Each structure stands twice: as C-alpha cells, then as structure tokens.
Amino acid sequence: MRILIVEDNPRIAGFLQKGLREEGYVAEVAGDGDTAFEKATTQGFDAAVVDVMIPGRTGVELVRDLREREVRIPVLLLTARDRTEDKVAGLDAGADDYLTKPFEFSELSARLRALLRRAGSPGASATLRAGDVEMDPATREVRRGGKPVDLTPREYATLEYLLRNSGRPLSRAAMMEHVWGIRFDPGTNIVDVCINSLRTKLDDRERGLIQTVRGVGYAIKAPAEESEG
C-alpha cells in the first residue's frame, strides 16, 4: 500500500517513513502542502498522513483542496493542536481522522489500518479474506486453510494489495506503483516473479485463487466472487 507523508520536519518525516516501510508500506514524503497536492492529484496513493502546520497550503487547506478535486484517499491529520475547534476544522475540511502530537507510532499505525479498512469496505472485518486465505494486518500473519504461511515483506505487500482490491483486476503498473513504489518499467518482471512465489507459498497453482488477467495483470478471486462474476 502506498502512503503519502506530508511533513516539513525532516526528523519526524524520517521517523514516519522508516516506521511505515518497516510495516511493509511504500512511504513517500512531501515537505509542503503544494508539493503534496501535486503528488496526490497525479499519483496513486492509498492514504495520506498530513501534518497541519506545513509550508504552502496548510494541512487543512490541502485536505479541502483534495476533496474539491474529488481525490478521496483517506487522510489522517497530525497536529500539536488539541483544541476541539481545531479537530472540528480538520474533519470538516474532509480529513478522516485526527491524531495529536506527541503520539505513539503503534497508534498511528492502527489508525491508518482502520482508515484503509474502511476505505476498502466500510464495516468490514479487520482481517482480510479471500476464500480460505486470511491476513491479519495488525499481526502481519497470513494463513491458508488455517495453516500459517511465511511471506517476505514484498510478498506480503503484494498479497495485501490484492486482498484489499479483491475481485478487481490490477494492472502490473498499478502493482509496481503501490507495492514497489516505482513507475511501470516494461523491462522488468518483478511482479510476475513475486506472484509466482506467492502461488507456490500459498499452494495456489491448482486452486487458482490468484488469477492471471490476460492483457492486464492479476486479480484475487474467491470462488463466490467467480460465480457472481
């Protein structure tokens, strides 16, 4: 999953980027509101963590402008201000959650998971599922048929992206951007190599949960989704 960090303090930005990368996210930093607006409106992000007091557009102005541009990515605002009216202003501008500094990274991470969950499927369980494959983003445990599956960070991120978009064909370009954080390079086959490894570890070669979509990329489809389609 690709997260945009909007923070002008290099120490805090570095702390957030390191922590999110260790949890398997692709995390990019914008140091001001105007750069963040350009990135959020032209590149595909799954969520944004936005400091309120930043150069250029403030965090609140950034969220308001993104919503006016119909950019609907979940936004978690960060601020040292803890007055109720400040929180109301941020949420009214279109932010999805609000976290006051100082904060524990574990709380930020949990709030981010909740935002991503609600964005994917409002009211959905915290556990991601497709067929008999289960993923718990809080513990990073993956199981198939109740048996644990050991994945590398990149395999985990790829499977998470597929599960959060269950039933939808995902292009190789989108997967490279959201999982590897790089623009599509037709000369590389890293997506195919990773999918091949996932199919082996999930024992999926015969069962076909992860499907190749000809001319597009891949999709994860549970049996029920296939029959509905």
Automatic annotation (TrEMBL):
Residues 2-116 form the Response regulatory domain. It comes from Longimicrobium terrae. Residues 125-222 form the OmpR/PhoB-type domain. It comes from the Bacteria. Residues 125-222 bind DNA. The modification 4-aspartylphosphate is found at residue 51. Keywords: DNA-binding, Phosphoprotein, Transcription, Transcription regulation, Two-component regulatory system. InterPro entries: CheY-like_superfamily, OmpR/PhoB-type_DNA-bd, Sig_transdc_resp-reg_C-effctor, Sig_transdc_resp-reg_receiver, WalR-like, WH-like_DNA-bd_sf. This is Two-component system OmpR family response regulator.
